[in-house]
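Let's sit down with a protein and look at its sequence and fold side by side. Once you have written the record down, we can walk along the chain together.
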Amino acid sequence: MKANTQKKLLDELYEVLERHSLKNYNPELVIEILSRSLNRKPETRKEYIKNIVKPYELLKEQRKRMLYTLEKVSTLTGIPKSNLSAMENGKRPIGLKMAKVLSSALEISYKTLL
């Protein structure tokens, strides 16, 4: 895709997200998710969802949507900031126990973080 086309698409996406009061979503990530979904056709819905958004991406996006800092999530969950950062960057697995703790603080289902 040409740089001009990419910039135009990104600008349009910013407008759509703002129009629908979704200002805390990262347009670059939304574009990446959409492009991945167009390029893959997994067999099951569960595989499809897992391939579109990685749990660590969802963790970071949900924290940002709620306008929480790593420090705030750390305070709410008791999980050290360094561990949260590593989870958000895909360098540390989230795991069932952590998913349950994080889900209550971030008001999402723990299953989405697995």
User: Anything to note?
Assistant: The CA atoms of residues 15 and 73 lie 29 Å apart.
